Amino acid sequence: MSKPIRILLVLAILGAAGGGAWWYLHRPKTGDELTLYGNVDLRQASLAFNGNERIAAVLVEEGDIVRAGQVLARLDTSRLKPQVAQAEAALASQKAVLLKLRNGTRPEEIEQARSNLNSARADYVNASAQYERRRNLSAASVSQQELDIARASAEMANARLAVAKSALDLALVGPRIEDIKQAEAQVQASEAQLALIQQQLVDAELKAPFEAIVRSRLMEPGEMASPMRPVFSVAERSTKWVRSYVPEPKLGHIRPGERTQVISDSFPDKPLDGWIGFISPVAEFTPKTVQTEDLRTSLVYEVRVFVEDPADVLRLGMPATVRLLPGAEPKAVPQNADGKPQT
Fold first, then answer.
1. Rounded to an integer, what distance in angstroms lies between the CA atom of residue 200 and that of residue 187?
2. 43-52, 92-101, 130-139: which range is least confident on average?
3. CATH 3.30.70.890, domain 30-43+236-324, yes or no
């Protein structure tokens, strides 16, 4: 075969291959094929302190990966710690009062009350005897004033006897049930106050609610924190999805759990496995940031395509292409109590 013929044959083969490749890339799509376009989204949370105090320390930086329960920042606790000590002392005092009431009167106190009663009885007997002697004497021997003084002394001794007898009776009976209940209630109130202050001390540490990456550090040490001012914005790493939009005519071609491939511009040769997890029941106009083959003015439905990203290559806001795999086994989508797919 001559050289010109070989060249012509090679050119023909290359032309056929190029034409085949162009046709494959620009071939008309069948009704079962659907490509979606969107952006990567993550579950995000704004973390704020549950109290009003100055920030003492901020322990992480933007971009740090934090684990669940890790301390991210601390408040100044110089005023909380004395309040805890004060509440602990008040609780100890109330418990001592309650214990005293529950134990009742000590034997020594009963003996003391009995001795006071005996002394009061002896005084009364003596005062009564003196009054009777003066009363039996003639008017010439005892004046009316001395007789009145003796009678008053006897009455006062009788009153002291009654008081001593009542004191002994109370010592023998012990404290009232109502007093014990009141002391118990005061102990419970002191315990609740202590628990509240201790919880405020715990809340002085801002902890990560889940494993996440710190996206924004919004406050610095020395600033006044409050529940209305977030200190951090964090994003969960385990759950990622592509927020995309499906035109109304294509809505019937997708279903929850349908398998997909997610392709990013950074790694076009490394598609990630995914599945359709949520299809919005409400139509909306296509956002300007979404590129589709249809007109932007057409109504579309939001779709969330969840992605398995073990290597953590997807980033928040990254553009992604979603290709549906109609023949693949669908993924079981968890459902709520009402039978609807979880979002």
1. 20
2. 130-139
3. no
